[in-house]
What we know:
Elements lengths: L3 H7 L3 H45 L4 H12 L4 E10 L15 E10 L7 H4 L1 E10 L3
Antiparallel strand pairs: 1-2, 2-3
Amino acid sequence: MVTQKLRRWRDxxxxxxxxxxxxxxxxxxxxGSIEFGLAVNARTMIGNAAREGVRVASLGGSVADVTASxxxxxxxxxxxxxxxxxxxxxxxxxVPGAAKGGDVATVVVTVNYTGITGMFPQLTNATLTxxxxxxxxx
Length: 138
């Protein structure tokens, strides 16, 4: 017959083994949630930066103003950042920064996003792009 003392002695360490099996899964879930949340936040901020840049362009801002406002809106997003400002004329040509009212401004913001944990290679070197259009006031 198994006594109470013998049963406790046999079960010693079972909690430690179960904990050791569960901890890696929990760590992957926690860091995965953090990495995914930061990637979604970066994507949202890139879209907002494109909208902010095209808003400045629609008010007649120069190329430097558009680029500065878009980069400022990106804030703490990690990675290499690039802003492209172009315009499309309804009639004739269009020069960014000196466009006429009625032309359409386009701002494309591209970021080579780098994640913080490195656990997910598809997020570590992802290229996130946002494009926004707006008619130039005038």
